[in-house]
From TrEMBL:
Keywords: ATP-binding, Kinase, Nucleotide-binding, Serine/threonine-protein kinase, Transferase. The keyword Ribonucleoprotein does not apply. GO terms for molecular function: ATP binding; protein serine/threonine kinase activity. It comes from Streptomyces malaysiensis subsp. samsunensis. This is ATP-binding protein. It holds the Pfam family HATPase_c_2. Residues 31-128 form the Histidine kinase/HSP90-like ATPase domain. The keyword Disulfide bond does not apply.
Length: 150
């Protein structure tokens, strides 16, 4: 994700004809605020006509990545959803960018060890591709959910 690139604004005619290809959400840095971000992400995928089973997978990936950013990383954090097209398929690309790892773990101390660390496994299982980009001042974790075209 290129954070120097502005999110493309759309005029009313474009919004009716074709929902925006990129949607950017700032993340509140409290776990209680993430439900609203997830609902907004669900609405974006609904506008993009993503099949419900794939949208559910994408929303689980969104949940894992945004929770990781809020619990384990420094603010600010943001979620970017985009649609990307290849010759045979569409992909929903999910990117969560934060300011890098926190010096200490916040909020995970009361969880049992077997309840922790499954997020990356879930993301990898549901995604066609996923990865992490680390750079000066932050980290972006990303995943792509394939939506095959008929």
């Amino acid at each position: 994700m290129n954070h120097n690139r502005p999110v493309r604004p759309s005029n009313a005619l474009e919004a009716v004809a074709s929902p925006p290809a990129d949607v950017l959400f700032p993340l509140p840095h409290i776990p209680e605020g993430l439900g609203a971000v997830r609902r907004r992400a669900a609405r974006a995928m609904e506008q993009w006509c993503i099949p419900s089973d794939l949208a559910d997978d994408a929303l689980l990936v969104v949940s894992e990545l945004i929770t990781n950013a809020v619990v384990h990383a420094l603010p600010p954090a943001s979620l970017c959803l985009s649609r990307q097209r290849s010759k045979a398929a569409w992909a929903v690309r999910i990117e969560v960018t934060d300011a890098g790892p926190a010096l200490r773990d916040h909020g995970g101390g009361s969880r049992l060890p077997e309840e922790r660390g499954r997020g990356s496994t879930i993301v990898a299982a549901l995604s066609a591709r996923s990865g992490t980009m680390t750079y000066h001042g932050g980290t972006t974790r990303w995943a792509e959910i394939q939506v095959t075209t008929p």
